[in-house]
Amino acid sequence: MESIAGTTVGREREQEALSEFVTAAGGRALVLHGDTGVGKSALLEHAAALAEGERHRVVRAAGVEAESQLPFAGLHQFLHPLLPHIDRLDDVHREVFDVVFGRGEGSPPSVMTLGIAVLDVLSLAASQQPLLLVLDDGQWLDTSSIEVCGFVGRRLTGSSVKLLVGLRSDVTSGFDTAALPRLAVPTLSEKASEQLLDLRHPGLDPVIRRLVLDEAQGNALALLELPPHVPRGGRPAANREALSGYPGVPLPQRLQQVYGDRIRALGDGVRTELLRGALDGVGAGTAARHPRGTRYRMLDADEAAACGLLDIDPLSGDFVFRHPLVRSTVVQLATPNERRAAHAALARVHREDVERRATHLAAATVDPDEEVAAALEAAAESVIRRGGAMVAVSWLTRAAELSERPEERSRRLGDAAFVAGHAGLLGRARHLVPGPVPGGGHSPASVVAAAYAALYEDGDVRSSRRHVVAAIEDLRDNGVKDSHEVLTRLINLLLAINQYASDEAAWERTHALLDTLGELVPAHSRIYQDAWGDVVRRGAGVRERVENAFAALRDPEPWDITRLGVAAYHVDVLGQYRPLLQRALDRESGSGAMATSMTMLHQIMLDQMAVGEWDEAERTGQQCLDLATSHSHMLFAHHARGYLGLLAAMRGRSDVARRHQAAVDAWARPRGVGFLTQIADATGTTAALTEGDYEAAYLHAIGITPPGTFTPYAHQAPRTLLDLVEAALHTGRHEQARAHALAARQARLPEISPRLAVVTHGALAMTATDPAEAGHHYHQAETHPAATFPYELARIRLAHGIHLRHTQGRKAARLTLTLATETFERLGAPAWAERSRAELRAAGASPLASSAHLATLTWQERRIADLAASGLTNKEIGARMHLSPRTVSSHLYRVFPKLGITSRAALRDALAKLPDGQDA
């Protein structure tokens, strides 16, 4: 589209759609997509003019290719004009922006956290007047900003904010999957093309007119720009081939030739200014404004503006490129030396910006330069913490190329390979590692890269362990010197390999090896050593060490979070760190540490399973399986299958459970991946228990550990404590059941983790012959401060209800059985729920009877229930009551059975039926 004296040409459909978009009540988003030069920018300007006529405030931004890898650069453009509103936010939301925009320290927020904060800012801004956000060239926006814009765009309904985005159809973008409404902008029809050409270039020679129409093919920019550069006779002024009609030349290249003639005619000083602006991502078009000071400011460029290459931003008065093609043509026409000189100048301009300065220094430098290499290394460390592991690999590789000393080059290549492995770039990691060291052996960095690849891709725990052990012994025997970082990586990798192998002999050799290293083993690695191996024998005090380590984290790298997360899982305190994991996962999405993201997904799924969010857990597990499969990380893929199988077994979906169990077992057992074979055995145990096949459950359970003891280094041994005890009791093996419960107490499992405390008391209660002892332990299990594991708790309550019916009569059992029944129903465990309902019927109560009359709500439970009934999320409730979302969830799990309901939707009606004083 082109506007001539208020008249639009050929865009009536798009104009009508935009008019409806701008004037419609409420907030919404719309994406315009079409080829380069087709007229999207003009349509965006048309919409902006309409909005200003409707007294909207218009905020413009533009994606620039030079910043497409800098996290949140695009979001900063949008929000810079709204900074006064950010300062009006509460401390929590204001700190989110301080972290993202480099004004403060802290962990980067998740997409959801940042998106909610952005919505708050937009709401404040729109409270004064309706707001239109206009984004041109959205395909160049950085991934982080796209995710936030997509999140915000899907949640504008009911607000006074609108988002309008222009995208090139020929460039893939995160907006392609953002699920925002789209409006295609096709090329102009033949009739509209002729009309536009005649309006802007009347009186053209018929031959030239025909040639322009044929070459433009409905592209508005070509129709406007080509005619002045086609001389009489239909040949171009500077390049006859450019308009020869050759069909294989893409339109943008032909237009670049047109701009190239004008650029070449400029003076050296002006071309230098244009080149610096282009390399620094100065915007294109009046819709592409940037906050002053964040881009190079082109000066003395009036000559370029006079020949139509630049426009003047009406707000800032700065020069901007007339079209993105001008910017790209400026760069293409410059010589390598000219580009390097421009980058060097830009590095001086951005000397306070670690990442941007390093980017320009790297492009400006040819010969090895240790200062530049160190700057790139610092930039890589910065971007890793912001979810840019893939970018960091490139910067570390370039830093290695510019290193002056061989040892520094080797170290940086090793760092690049390490990050590449965690970014899911296993092939690149192998190619990056340094070659053989003097004497013919492999460098420690190459061992790290190769072992990670062997472990992730094929679950090779045997040979990878041998190579890693040899590398550690070599470093120890020859002096660690400057290799502390590599040694730490080797130690942590060895511990990870041992965890997956779950081999007692290998673990004992590892303990002996680490003992010889003494203080060279970091404190965090000592936590992993004790938590990842045999938590029964080495888990005392680990929970406190994990909590202290998490509390001390400052600007952690993603793998630091996941390693501590694995330790937290083994001592059952993972839930309190799920928000941190989710933020880290959101940050790593797309361009971060993909292998680490898979571990984060595993951990989030495990916590969802633990707290009873089984639907969410299934989605998380499938997401992890898809991600791992797409990256050929077969270890993580089968790890995800193992958890999906275990979840299916808990839900009574035996066919699904056994299919996953068989696949995991067939892959893991020949490789010696004991961690996964134990999960497969646990899946078989759980499936059999759910079906009521107690003999099969017992046989599966003793395959993990025999009764009366806990097999060393078998992580599922303590986790299946309740399973073995129940299976043994139901098959008449009372002595074995009691021996196993006593062994749990003897091993002091309740001191290791809150979950183990609950199930140990449950096992002792189920196996006690003295009713008083049984009652004591049932009480301990059901009132434990950490009794927030609904599946295990419901099973203990079911057993308790049966015990009460037999010892105290039917009436005494009803409340406990009702609570168990409703929990199973809420979880979606139909087989367990039916078993519990049968016991409830035996106790003389209707399984459909509400338990509201049997229990009262505490003041805090009533307050949480009221807020949930009003539609607030757990996170929003937590913010109001200064509780964590997980604590809110735990309270609701206790509230639901008290009210006799199974869903949030029933809360309002149930609360309305409560008598006065019920919330005392």
Specify Rg, calculated over alpha carbons.
33 Å
Shape call: globular
CATH architecture annotation of the domain at 633-847: Alpha Horseshoe
- Major beta sheet summary: 5 strands, parallel
Strand tally: 9
CATH topology (level 3) name of the domain at 633-847: Serine Threonine Protein Phosphatase 5, Tetratricopeptide repeat
Give the CATH level 1 class of the domain at 633-847. Answer: Mainly Alpha
Helix run count = 47
Structural class: mainly alpha
What integer is the average pLDDT?
84
Portion of residues in beta strands equals: under 5%
Approximately how much helix is present in the residues?
55-70%
Distance between the termini: 68 Å
Strand order of the largest sheet: 4-5-6-3-7
Instruction: Provide the low-confidence segments as ranges.
Output: 1-7, 233-251, 286-293, 436-440, 849-854, 916-920
Provide a brief overview of the structure.
The protein is mainly alpha-helical and 920 residues long.
Features:
47 helices; five-stranded parallel β-sheet; 9 strands; mainly alpha; two-stranded antiparallel sheet; Rossmann fold; Serine Threonine Protein Phosphatase 5, Tetratricopeptide repeat; Sig_transdc_resp-reg_C-effctor
Structure description:
The structure is a single chain. The protein is mainly α and 920 residues long. Among the domains are: 3-184, 3-Layer(aba) Sandwich (Rossmann fold), CATH 3.40.50; 190-262; 334-430, Serine Threonine Protein Phosphatase 5, Tetratricopeptide repeat (Alpha Horseshoe), CATH 1.25.40; 633-847, Serine Threonine Protein Phosphatase 5, Tetratricopeptide repeat, CATH 1.25.40; 859-912, Arc Repressor Mutant, subunit A, CATH 1.10.10.10. The chain contains 47 helices and 9 strands. A hairpin with a 2-residue loop joins strand 1 (3-4) and strand 2 (7-8). Helix 23 packs parallel to helix 25, helix 30 packs antiparallel against helix 31 and helix 34 (674-691) packs antiparallel against helix 35. The protein is globular and about 105 Å long. The N and C termini lie far apart (68 Å). Mean pLDDT is 84; it is low at 1-7, 233-251, 286-293, 436-440, 849-854 and 916-920.
